[in-house]
Amino acid sequence: MTSDKSPSTKDADRHKKKMQHRKTVMDAKIAAADQDRGVLLVHTGNGKGKSSSAFGMVARAIGNGMRVGVVQFVKGAQSTGEEIFFRRFPDEVEYHVMGEGFTWNTQDKERDIEKANEAWEQARIMLRDERFQLVVLDELNIVLRLKYLDLDTVLQDLKQRPFMQHVVATGRGALPELIDIADTVSEMNEIKHAFKAGVRAQKGVEM
Fold first, then answer.
1. Chunked in runs of 10, what are the mean pLDDT values of the chain (207 residues)?
2. Which of 43, 80, 92, 141 is the most exposed, having the fewest neighbouring CB atoms within 10 Å of its CB?
3. Could you list the residue range(s) of the whole structural domain that residue 79 is in?
4. Does some domain include residue 1?
5. Is residue 75, in this structure, part of any structural domain at all?
6. Any domain includes 202
7. Which pLDDT tens digit goes with each residue over 46-69?
């Protein structure tokens, strides 16, 4: 006895059964995720998108009526599109640019260490204030890797932040100790980059 279903109908049936099974699995996972608490996210890797993703979360937080704190380490030699934009929302975003440029431009290690520690003092204020529901620590990974900050102090401050506060740390070379205490870690991998083909950083893309 042959089936009277056409190939397209059989395919549709297979797809429906597959999606029904997937929905059952996903519904069970969603039901098991019953906690509400602040999470620590780490964006690292050599690819583009670490800070961009973090600032996408800032936009999402504003849309949800949340208050956000931003501290930028290292960066500061010139304004970025993110800074210019989010400064339009002073009631929602407190924005601090604490760096003076990348190390190959500043060429002053002691000054870089001083600025990194000043930035962390500002970060600590936010990490102790439950009114900040999201805190972005942009390029924190870099200053930790360079040992410009005391790692134990940073880890302790992150662990002791308000229960519902979310934190995002960005930058290449995230240390294992930071990854260990993080809830979500994403690594951006570079496949191609226009800079290597001689294209300078473009407004709206890299700055």
1. 70 88 87 88 95 96 98 80 93 90 69 93 98 97 96 98 98 97 95 82 77
2. 92
3. 38-197
4. no
5. yes
6. no
7. 999 999 999 999 999 999 999 999
- In contact, 167 and 127? CB cutoff 8 Å: yes
Q: What is the CATH number of the domain that holds 179?
A: 3.40.50.300
Residue 10: predicted pLDDT? 85
Exposed / middle / buried, residue 190 (Cβ in 10 Å: 0-12, 13-18, 19+): exposed
Total of domains in the chain: 1
User: Is 18 a member of any domain?
Assistant: no
Which DSSP string do the residues of 79-122 spell out, in sequence order?
A: --HHHHHHTT-TTTEEEEE---S-HHHH--HHHHHHHHHHHHHH
